[in-house]
From TrEMBL:
This is GntR family transcriptional regulator. It holds the Pfam family GntR. It comes from the Bacteria. CDD domains: WHTH_GntR. It comes from Nonomuraea salmonea. PANTHER family: GNTR-FAMILY TRANSCRIPTIONAL REGULATOR (PTHR38445:SF7), HTH-TYPE TRANSCRIPTIONAL REPRESSOR YTRA (PTHR38445).
């Protein structure tokens, strides 16, 4: 089961953070068809957020056809976003872990690592478009 968290520095609203975390878990194969999302009550208790925030996130995921709510039972994954290259994730994750360790050893904090990664990512994406 997915464990939600909120990042006050992300710039995303709490409901969008929940949506994004479910989408990432679906894309990485961490959530599969039939898996149950945490109950609204559990998410509210864990994150100390308004139940309407969780409901809004779950409704958006349902609108996108990724989950379905079963009243009195819970919210369940109806489809995944995982692609067929999941086997490549393990080695890539290991390389990324090594890169992160080197970045920390070089003295970069989390915000600097994220900034470096995102600017490089966007730069490469722009090169791919051109």
């Amino acid at each position: 089961m997915i464990e939600f968290y909120l990042d006050g520095r992300s710039g995303l609203s709490p409901y969008l953070q929940l949506v994004q975390q479910v989408r990432h878990a679906l894309r990485l194969g961490l959530l599969r068809e039939g898996d149950q999302l945490p109950t609204v009550k559990d998410v509210v208790a864990r994150l100390a957020i308004n139940p309407n925030t969780v409901l809004k996130a779950y409704r958006e995921l349902e609108h996108d056809g990724l989950v379905t709510a079963r009243p009195g039972v819970g919210t369940f994954v109806t489809r995944t976003l995982a692609d067929t290259t999941l086997a490549a994730h393990g080695p890539l994750r290991q390389e990324l872990r090594r890169w992160l360790a080197r970045a920390r050893k070089a003295g970069l904090d989390d915000e600097s690592i994220e900034a470096l990664f995102m600017t490089t990512f966007r730069s490469v994406a722009q090169e791919d478009i051109a």
